[in-house]
Amino acid sequence: MPDRMTGRPGTRAGKAGHAEAARAKLLAAALPHVAFDGWTPRLMREAAEAAGISHNEMRLAFPDGALDLVDYFLADGDRRMEEALAAEDLAAMKVRARITRAVRVRLEVDVANREAVRRAVTLLALPTSGVHGPRALYRTVDAIWRAAGDTSTDFNFYTKRATLAGVWSAVTLHWLSDHSDGFADTWAFLDRRIEDVMRFEKAKASLLGVMEKLPDPFALLGRLRYRE
Question: Rounded to an integer, what distance in angstroms lies between the CA atom of residue 9 and that of residue 23?
């Protein structure tokens, strides 16, 4: 089929677009059955058949099988969160409110897929999942910080994401077992965890301020050396 951009058959853009379409169709066909079947090779085969996708197309779309499908599902959740937050005026909020809102929206976009999220978390926790779990976790917390307007590139870039990774993991597990009305218990839990992060950030800022006022240890050693 000719590529829409170049008109030539078999171009890289055309193949990429075809693979993306296959991934989206497979996920849509799989989601209604994940709660019962889990993220398994069987689920993928049945989803491919329901979506009219050949076995070869399925393997091209998800070379690592179910793990790739889970990764795609979680990345799609990040994308839907970003779209939802783009319609909100986060710039008018303080950083704490932005992060709280972003975490909440990221969970809310998958309310209908909560069992699929549970199955995904369980699968990614297995040693056989390799780097898929950490990679998905990093991508989500990075998307949350970016949606909140973070532009840091220094050491803070990594500490912010490492801290939020702990918060996100804890809040997600709480949400998966929450049976309160409107997930009220989860949102209260989230507020407490964000408060912990804010206290950490204030303590870190204070410590850095103190350290900046301390004399340079290498300069002190140099003066002592040449004093002899």
Answer: 21
Say how many CA atoms lie within 13 Å of 132 toward its Cβ.
Answer: 24
Tokens coding 57:
């197309």
Question: What's the length of the chain?
Answer: 228
pLDDT in tens, 39-79: 999 999 999 999 999 999 999 999 999 999 999 999 999 99
Measured between alpha carbons, how far apart are the two ends of the chain, in Å?
81
Q: How far is residue 38's CA from residue 123's CA, in Å, rounded to a whole number?
A: 9
User: How does DSSP classify residue 215?
Assistant: P
Q: Return d(Cα 119, Cα 81) in angstroms, integer.
A: 20
The secondary structure element, H or E, covering residue 161 is: helix 155-176
Same domain for 68 and 55: no
Domain interval for residue 109 = 64-227
Domain total in the chain? 2
Reduced to 3 states (helix: H, G, I; strand: E, B; else coil), residue 53 is coil
pLDDT < 50 regions, the chain:
1-9, 207-208, 210-211, 214, 216-228
Please list the residues that pair with 2 across neighbouring strands.
Answer: 9
